[in-house]
Amino acid sequence: MEQTFLMVKPDGVQRNLTGEIVNRFERKGFKLAGAKLMQITDDLAKTHYGEHQDKPFFGELVEFITSGPVLAMVWEGDNVIATARDMMGKTNPLEAAPGTIRGDYGVTVGKNIIHGSDSHESAEKEIKLFFNDNEIVSYEKQD
Ligand code: CMP
Q: What is its EC number (predicted)?
């Protein structure tokens, strides 16, 4: 079964949006397979966002993602990687459609509430980076 890595960023946690976000993915029909509230270290942030290390906003990005707790999650379901990206909306909340998470709750591209893996390859990499095998739970869920 396909899995993706989703993370409510520090702004989403601070603004009490974690429940709303979990609710959206549960209501859609996806299955929560792992979750932890955690403080990202500088090293983890730099590894996770390694592909952006040459971008002018890299320092700001690392500073923001380490500024407070995040809710790291693994979600499971058919086509969950692409569908979760659709549900999140475009990276810049000002361009994200109403009805999407960023479209409904965000204003700035830096503080855009949620991160989600953009491909099968990054989902696998990000899940391994944030979760140990024994933190991912396998169980039957009623549809
Ligand atoms: P995310 O999906 O977590 O992946 C990379 C992040 O970089 C992205 O969400 C944005 O939050 C952030 N980002 C992209 N462009 C900018 C920018 N111009 N300024 C600050 N942050 C940015």
A: 2.7.4.6
CA-CA-CA-CA torsion sign (123, 124, 129, 132): positive
Please give the pLDDT value at position 143.
73
pTM: 0.96
Give the dihedral sign, CA 124/84/103/68: negative
Rounded Cα–Cα distance for residues 139 and 41 (Å): 30
Residue 92 sits at the vertex; the CA angle it makes with 51 and 120, to the nearest 5 degrees, is 45
Residue listed under structure tokens 């500088």: 42
- 100 annotated ligand binder: no
Q: Give the ipTM.
A: 0.93
- Tell me if 122 CB under 6 Å of ligand 1: no
Calculate ∠ Cα 47-48-51, nearest 5°. Answer: 80
Q: Calculate the CA dihedral of residues 21, 96, 67, 58 and round it to 10 degrees.
A: 140
Catalytic positions, please? 115
Q: Report the residue among 91, 95, 107, 115 best suited for mutation to probe ligand 1: largest number of ligand atoms under 8 A from its CB.
A: 91
